Amino acid sequence: MESSLGFVTPVRMHFDQALALQNGQSLPAYDLMVETYGTLNRERSNAVLICHALNASHHVAGIDPDSAEVGWWDNMVGPGKPLDTNRFFVIGVNNLGSCFGSTGPMSLDPQTGRPYGARFPVITVEDWVHAQARVADAYGIARFAAVMGGSLGGMQALAWSLMYPQRVAHCMVIASTPKLSAQNIAFNEVARSAIRSDPDFHGGDYYAQGVKPRGGLRVARMIGHITYLSDDDMATKFGRALRRAEGALDAYKFSFDVEFEVESYLRYQGDKFAEYFDANTYLLITRALDYFDPAKAFDGDLTAALDATTATFFVASFTTDWRFAPARSRELVRALLKLKRDVTYAEIDAPHGHDAFLLDDARYHNLVRAQFARIAEEVNA
């Protein structure tokens, strides 16, 4: 039976050894915020790593004791849930460059004593995976029972299977892609342009000015929300509903104020996001999304890129997800099948667009539950 994890307190893990980055630079001593659920078994064989997407964090499940916020994947992770913490030890790591406690642009640069700001080094998915591997080392975990993520988190799970093939038994890639399309990169650039064009951005050094590019962040988030939802979902939620009565005397008065319910929703989401997220983090993480392309080193041959993998794969997509379309997941599955890898693929007919991977859907959750039941059998064999 499903139940809540209750209050969960994160830990700050400090690493003194410099991290060599893919761009040739290195990051000296750094911190990572980590949250864990469940109990690591004596063999240390029941650990599952959850990789987060753009605006998420280490707070995967349970309740934050300070903010009372519920974890972003609380419907997936917990006692009796698809990823059952009665069986598995689950780890959530806030990635480098993020703004939820791990070292990032808001952190103090030890060389200057001021926030890194725009000087924080460019971070890639591969850099995140190397940092996560050090977290695994700190817990004495030689091999994960599974590495799992949705969207950008799915890219990290895939990277784990390529970079540390002997340390991943199962790779679970949900609503993701082996590389972004040109259209996806274009959406990211429009969002970044909105932030950079904000007069309060100050070239990324807005901390010293005591301001924040809220206007740019609002627009960036609104753009993102449009791409995360399907047309059908937006039509069902909002349609063309007006916020005022249809028969009002000013029904046709031209206005730039909020007129439609969908506008109200987008502005609300943008305002909320601008208060808690960091603009430099947004720029960094969307660039990491853009750069990820494991096939690039193999002249675009994804099958060749995946040849080093040894994991069993679970890949899931959603029919109305046009941002990370099922065609991209099928591309990954075809390449894995050419290599005769053990792969399960589910294409779920859900109306919610890209956000479907975060929502309750019995078919989707039952598939994940069945996959983890299989993994639990292997762990306990």
UniProtKB/TrEMBL annotation:
Keyword tags: Acyltransferase, Amino-acid biosynthesis, Cytoplasm, Methionine biosynthesis, Transferase
InterPro entries: AB_hydrolase_1, AB_hydrolase_fold, HAT_MetX-like
Occurrences of domain AB hydrolase-1 (ranges): 46-358
An annotated Gene Ontology molecular function: homoserine O-acetyltransferase activity
Binding annotation for substrate: 221, 355
Catalytic activity: L-homoserine + succinyl-CoA = O-succinyl-L-homoserine + CoA
Subcellular location(s) of the protein: Cytoplasm
Active site residues per record: 151 (nucleophile), 321, 354
Root EC class: transferase
Site, as annotated: Important for acyl-CoA specificity: 323
Keyword Transferase appears in the UniProt entry: yes
Gene3D superfamilies in the record: 1.10.1740.110, alpha/beta hydrolase (3.40.50.1820)
Enzyme Commission identifier(s): 2.3.1.46
UniProt pathway: Amino-acid biosynthesis; L-methionine biosynthesis via de novo pathway; O-succinyl-L-homoserine from L-homoserine: step 1/1
Broad class of the protein's primary localization: cytoplasm
Function: Transfers a succinyl group from succinyl-CoA to L-homoserine, forming succinyl-L-homoserine.
Family indicated by similarity: Belongs to the AB hydrolase superfamily. MetX family.
Record's subunit section: Homodimer.
Name of this protein: Homoserine O-succinyltransferase
Phylogenetic placement of the source organism: Bacteria, Pseudomonadati, Pseudomonadota, Betaproteobacteria, Burkholderiales
Gene that this polypeptide is encoded by: metXS
